[in-house]
Amino acid sequence: MYVAVKGGERAIENAHRLLAHKRRGDQGVPEVTLAQISEQLGLAVDRVMSEGSLYDRELAALAIKQARGDLIEAIFLVRAFRATMPRFGSSEPVDTGTMRVRRRVSATFKDIPGGQILGPTFDYTHRLLDPLLAEGLAPEAPATADAHTAPTPRVTDILGRDGLIECSPPADDGASVGDLTREPLNFPADRDLRLQNLARGDEGFLLAMGYSTQRGYGRNHPFVGEIRFGEVEVELFAEDAGFAVPLGSIELTECQMVNQFKGSATEAPCFTRGYGLAFGQSERKTMSMALVDRALRARELGEEVRAPAQDEEFVMSHSDNVQATGFVEHLKLPHYVDFQSELGLLRKLRQEFADASTPDAMKEAAE
Amino acid sequence: MNAPAYNFAYLDEQTKRMIRRAILKAIAIPGYQVPFASREMPMPYGWGTGGVQVTAAILGPEDVLKVIDQGSDDTTNAISIRKFFAKTAGVATTTATNEATVIQTRHRIPETALHENQVLVYQVPIPEPLRFLEPRETETRRMHALAEYGLMHVKLYEDIARFGHIATAYAYPVKVNARYVMDPSPTPKFDNPKMDNCPALQLFGAGREKRIYAIPPYTQVVSLDFEDHPFEPYRFNAPCALCGAENSYLDEIVTDDKGGRMFVCSDTDYCEGRQATGHHGSLSAAPYKEKAHG
Amino acid sequence: MTTIAELPPGFVDKVLSAQSTFRSVMDAMARPGSVRRIVPGAGTPGPMMRGTAAIALTLFDHDTPLWLDARMAESSDVVKWLKFHTGAPVVQDTSIAGFALIGDGAALPSLERFALGTSEYPDRSTTVILQVDSLDAGRGFELRGPGIDGVATLKASITPYDLFERLHVNEALFPRGIDVVLVADDAVVAIPRTTRVVSKES
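The joint structure predicted for all components is written out below.
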């Protein structure tokens, strides 16, 4: 006698109980705190904030803890929370020119006004596993110097003064900034939406796409004009007050890529731009983003669209790891109804194939 | 910390308004895919976020909700979605097709005929019927605008040339109200005829792809075919082993590793209803043996 | 002058009233010609009927450009109430309106002046909400099309008298077109672009 399988609420509940148990791990080991995650796994928190599109270190740390360290799962948790938040308005554009710079490097000039600042970086570390760190040694105090007072103008602005790089399009005060989380996306998409898509896009995907442009799939001759990381003020224009009020400061990484020049009979040749921006410190993400942003400007700059990274439908439709994860993983949901339909068709086709074959061939097929 | 607090049926009112406006346009233009600003839901894309958003936008406290996946009320994803709405909207739920006012489904249309006081909400993974022929949205949108569906007919005809049949067994394309070619979601083509002239309103939600579309009640829905190769719904030719139904869609159950099979209704509510009213199948029927030929 | 405090109220229960109103409108749109009732009450500023007010509260917001006919626009109560309760931007250009509110059917603009959508995006079209005298008495009409099991009948007293003749443009335009919601007090009837309406011989 056959009894139909029941998925069962209890099975689901028990699975989730087991998950909670596995999440905690060995209870003889102290439980990780949100502050520990935020302080000691800060770059994971930065990534979750960036791709989760929500600047909140504590919630990002909670998401990482809840997701057992699976960052895409953590990004998903943050996004689902963010989706229900009411909108109070749009902040004023942040001015990265006034950033309190913690790190700043340019590959285009040896020295720049305000100087190159290495800051906290993995660059030039020797990637040797450190047994001392395993034991939990307190680090040396950082080196100090007098507070840096010189202004740090953006390298692209320095180039721009001589007309050597295209102007950033002037801000249109009246125009609202697109938001692909509130408006359905249409193609072709403007650059504001493309940049938003890339800012939320999966770091690994952007890395691969950016890398592909370096290997000839949509090459655009990039130079790192500047990468800067530090704090900027966020302000909101308050209609009642009639002026912009500060909301606080956030950490950002910005990458300005200086790319292949363009020119025409009517326009003097100049470099073009690719732009990357992310919450927290994320150079891999912002550099990749800048490469892909530049590649996606192919249409606008009159270049032939041939490579995947130049194809905005391809890039924008596949960059989001929450979407991609969901759809890839949905394959593990039951599909037995459609599979059954496919099976029936296949059996019928095989039957017809067998019927049409010679008796010898039939015998062979049966073996 | 910002402690989360959620609205009735989870979605905020602004999101519901946006979805509701899309639903009205979808009903006004049968089979046309209305873009909407799909939200990130607390369940993964591909697991019913489109259906869940549509259901959340229409559901009220007086509704009775049924959720099925593969025809069954008891599959884990169906349970999970039903619990989500029972928790966030406090609605009554049921497994009885007849009693439901809103039915959210993945991959099946119930066997019991739907009535006027019902809305069937489909979860849709890929809403664009032309997507596998043309991956570009800009192109497929143009093809729909011009009702230029030759490519689809070519594809179906190539199947016939190669296999002697149209080799599409599920998500079989339909034409709605003699205008738009539409993807019915990955339902087996057995279910296609149920969409035609259906008394219930049918709504389709694709969350990841951000599209909503609809078939109003009593609307013509035709499965694409050719005069010399007419559309044929497929059903395994056996009665249900549990309720003896001769005209329901069947799940194939593998009973051992020696070729043993049995076939039971995929619609569990339908099957249980029949058994309760005295219909029985051959529970211990000789298991179907797959034959290599003949 | 009416102050905000003196404005007619919105819904008492925003969430459930909007849901109930939406279901009435959705059912009306899905079954053209059938008369649906709007149950939840809300304030009715100026010439606005109960049904119209409830629909506005249910479907309008910052994202829906709104066009008002002279009858609606000349009522400062209507304008203030809509702004306060829905935030919908009022536009002068009919061709970018998501919704149009018509208080005086005699002055209904030519339908081609509203947004008709494009072939690629036929959904980007105006939904015209037209207040009429009656949706249960008056001339008889027969309706056919999706949502209707054969033929539906409607008795209604509608200005403009030739509304359904004007809506014939929908036939040639489809899938572009205009969708109309008729309101009489708390009754609504929808005429989506797929519905074909003829006068019954009297």
